Amino acid sequence: MSYQVGPDDSAVPAWLVGEPADVVAAFEEMPVGLAAMEGPDFRWIAVNASYRAAFDREEFIGVTMREGLPEAQGQYLFELVDGVYASGEPFFATGWRAQFEIGGELQDRYYDFELHPRRRPDGTIRGILLQVIDVTEHTLQSRAAERAVAEAERRYQAARDVVVELQKALLPTGLPVLPQARVAARYLVAGDDQAAGGDWFDAVALPGGNLALVVGDVVGHGVAASAVMGQARAVFDELLGETGDLDHALHRIDRLAARSPGLRAATMCAAVLNPRTGGLRYSTCGHPPPLVVAPDGSSRYLKSSGGGPLGTGSALSVSEDVLRPGDVLMLYSDGLVEQPGSPLNAGMRTLATVAGDAVANRALRGGAPESAAERACQQTIELITRVGYVDDVTALAVQLSAEPVPPWRLDLSATPGAVTKTKGALREWLRQVDPTPHDGHLISLAVTELVANAVEHAYPAGRTGPVRLGADLGVDGVLSLTVADDGTWTEPPATPPDLSGRGLWMVGAVLDDVAIRHADETGRAGGTTVTVRHRLHHPAVLSAEPSATADRRTGVDFSTTLEDGPPRTLRVTGPLDITTVTVFADRLSTAGRGGVHPVVVDLTEVDVLASAGVSALFDARGRYTTHGHPLTIVAAAGGVPAAVLDLVGLNYVSHVPPDKPAG
């Protein structure tokens, strides 16, 4: 009987492991690198061809690991082997990078390997067993593929971002705010950048109080389609805004489409709604028909008005319907009803069901918007697109109210506390119409300045009198805010002064219109009424994410936080006005030791920057200049504080370097 040598020189019968020659040949031919090392100095006693090839060398047998692989020193390989020998626990590694001399030069190589203790019959450790696979080529190919995928993703995202930003520039980000109609809109850019860019929507308050609604889809996608879409929207808005005549606007844009290859065959659903009567005139122009959802969630599709896409020679016609109070009218693009692998009628049934549940507030009730129109747009897009979408998705909805938004009235005494009471009461009234945060901040700025002006200047020192406030939302979507007093009038300067009188000037600069009326022509008796007019907007949501939500930030309490830095930074939150300026000035003075130390004032989270706050900033800047230090002001570009700072000429930055304040 033949024998094979086993552990600790014991004999293993050949019938168990094979004939010695066969075992040696098989060991040598194994595609995996195999080796055995003996003793605490790790001297190789067995090495096969794959193991030798993995390290590009032949001299292993009888050589210690440190002698055979000297370049492994400092690469934490010797320490691994020492650890397995000492602990008796195996070690496994995947994609381990190491540097060895291959082909006469030091190269990066990647290995999958295992280290196992080799034991004597009594369990004591006598050496190490190794298994090694050279995965360098596979690793480099995988990493190259990963880089290619990352680059493709980057290019895809960049292309998609271009379309998204272009759509944001061309589509409305604000919707009309009307007394008897709540409007909502959401646009979801296609998941494929090659499919994005063809949808458009708009909602426009027409002369006389009617509301125009339109959702369209041009042929093609990408940047070219976005450009055509922008042209179509601008032209149709202009045509409809001239007279409010839907028939006239339809025929004019149809003739334009016939002459414009990019606009030809575009589909469109356009409607004109009278919010007071519910009367509706609409035309589908080859587009899916509008959906009407009652407050209880029951729904019906309006009949198609007939006619084909724009510019195709098809006769366009207008149909009529009547909506009831509480009804939600929904216009949408085909991307919302064309579900992958399903017929169009199935997609329309799904939309009717999901929209009905949203209007009745039966789905996703936690944190759902108060507005049924908002819920219809948000939840239909979020839920329906979960099964996939390849095209742009647009939803535009309006809900009729039985009664218009009631006017707001408030009578107060001209005392410093009037500003705080006024802002809180007006903010609560504005919640009914839900304007954009930007509009809300501007109205808050206006009422702060006008009431503060009456408190400080209307009545002689030591005396007080009434301040009467009112707000009305017109059928055209314009808010009229009035502040009246019975005192005398001091004419403000035409340009912003150094210390006072900025309030009215700032209000006139950032809102649409300011009118001042006196009880008598001189303004010396009988009181003054200041009326501010500003068109309000409700936020539309334009996003690449189905579950995106609109910015709903409302007024927050005033607070300051001092961070030692560097740079030493005073972060301000909430309103900076007549009611908070004293605290702000004290904390700013303390932060900078009266101007001795440079300070950064971060106004990023300030929602109202009134003239009192501006005066405090000018005062602080003067003190800091005297001491030779800058006062760095931080404000978010496009925010209300930045707009005010631009008006009054105070320099600011959008962020501060972490190591030092900006100069």
TrEMBL record:
<dbReference type="Pfam" id="PF07228">
    <property type="entry name" value="SpoIIE"/>
</dbReference>
<dbReference type="InterPro" id="IPR013656">
    <property type="entry name" value="PAS_4"/>
</dbReference>
<dbReference type="InterPro" id="IPR036457">
    <property type="entry name" value="PPM-type-like_dom_sf"/>
</dbReference>
<feature type="coiled-coil region">
    <location>
        <begin position="135"/>
        <end position="169"/>
    </location>
</feature>
<keyword id="KW-0378">Hydrolase</keyword>
<feature type="domain" description="STAS">
    <location>
        <begin position="570"/>
        <end position="663"/>
    </location>
</feature>
<dbReference type="InterPro" id="IPR052016">
    <property type="entry name" value="Bact_Sigma-Reg"/>
</dbReference>
<dbReference type="InterPro" id="IPR003594">
    <property type="entry name" value="HATPase_dom"/>
</dbReference>
<dbReference type="Pfam" id="PF13581">
    <property type="entry name" value="HATPase_c_2"/>
</dbReference>
<dbReference type="InterPro" id="IPR001932">
    <property type="entry name" value="PPM-type_phosphatase-like_dom"/>
</dbReference>
<dbReference type="InterPro" id="IPR036890">
    <property type="entry name" value="HATPase_C_sf"/>
</dbReference>
<dbReference type="InterPro" id="IPR036513">
    <property type="entry name" value="STAS_dom_sf"/>
</dbReference>
<feature type="domain" description="PPM-type phosphatase">
    <location>
        <begin position="182"/>
        <end position="400"/>
    </location>
</feature>
<keyword id="KW-0175">Coiled coil</keyword>
<protein>
    <submittedName>
        <fullName>Serine phosphatase RsbU (Regulator of sigma subunit)/anti-sigma regulatory factor (Ser/Thr protein kinase)/anti-anti-sigma regulatory factor</fullName>
    </submittedName>
</protein>
<dbReference type="Pfam" id="PF13466">
    <property type="entry name" value="STAS_2"/>
</dbReference>
<dbReference type="GO" id="GO:0016791">
    <property type="term" value="F:phosphatase activity"/>
</dbReference>
<dbReference type="Pfam" id="PF08448">
    <property type="entry name" value="PAS_4"/>
</dbReference>
<dbReference type="InterPro" id="IPR058548">
    <property type="entry name" value="MlaB-like_STAS"/>
</dbReference>
<dbReference type="InterPro" id="IPR002645">
    <property type="entry name" value="STAS_dom"/>
</dbReference>
<dbReference type="InterPro" id="IPR035965">
    <property type="entry name" value="PAS-like_dom_sf"/>
</dbReference>
